[in-house]
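Chapter summary example.
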Amino acid sequence: MKSTPFLKKHIALGAKMVEFAGYNMPISYSGINDEHNAVRANAGVFDVSHMGEFILKGPHALDLIQRVTTNDASALTAGKAQYSCLTNEEGGIVDDLIVYCIEENKVYMLVVNASNIEKDWNWISSFNTNKAEMHNISAKTCLLAIQGPNAAKILQPLTDMDILNLKYYTFVKGKFAEVDNVLISATGYTGAGGVEIYFEDKNDDAEKIWDAIFQIGAPQGLKPIGLGARDTLRLEMGYCLYGNDIDDKTSPLEAGLGWITKFSKDFTAKKILEQQKKQGVKTKLVGFEMVEKGIPRAHYEIKDFAGMTIGAVTSGTQSPTLGKAIGLGYVSTVFANLDSKIFIKVRDKLLQAKVVKLPFS
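The structure predicted for these 361 residues follows.
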């Protein structure tokens, strides 16, 4: 099992560790609800160094990105990023990712899910007919997500870069905590605001940055946060988790990701997805909240009033912020309208739920 450079920090802080995507990762420190609420109200630090990073360079880098991703990367200028996904030739999602434009038309960074690093690398490489320069820098790249409404304010004294006024999905590069060549982006998967910090793991820089963040942040209530709260935070926003809500067999249009699917360019599965858009999809990913008491879990069946199976839960939890049970799941399109009455099979009972607008409120 692999570990990130912060393993000793997690253990010293008493983290409960679990295997995730082949890495030994912290699931929680003080408890999922406590950590979740800390991020929503103030700020927290996530070690997400298990994520994958690829650098694509040269005159053919943008062409390759355009070929394999659904979003339009040609719209990116230096210092901007976009959410996107890779699609296979059947219209399924190979992975969801973020594309960073380091230098317009020349240098890009793709950030992919930890469990898909090898698969994504091989998939992108298979389309690299024009020999764009590709570098897999995942093993040497650290990534800390400092999320929450006060995150940027807490970190600003550690850098001369203006991170307080970073617009959503933009980034800057420079010195942070006396470490050079640090990329700080206004991204993250919590919906609580904040930044993500990318840097190379060398010369004890990982320890230096971690210690600097907590030295300045701990007195202001900054807490370490595990993957458990990361999951409840992203679920409250209705954000998809690869392997749960999206995978090789779900299309972006079924998953509600039509907004990152741009038909103004050519890309893998364009024809299939154009056909889906024209004809309409048969199933859709929806958010729902429980009307009757019970917590939905992944793979629970979703049924109609007559007890017929109409779909399945992909993610579910008791929302710490909202104090109610919520979930995501695919249902037959006829049941995807807001306020549609659906039933979740919890053990042997059918418990009523209703389709609601995302993000949950």
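To summarize the output: Helices lie at 7-12, 32-41, 61-68, 117-126, 151-155, 205-217, 227-237, 270-279.
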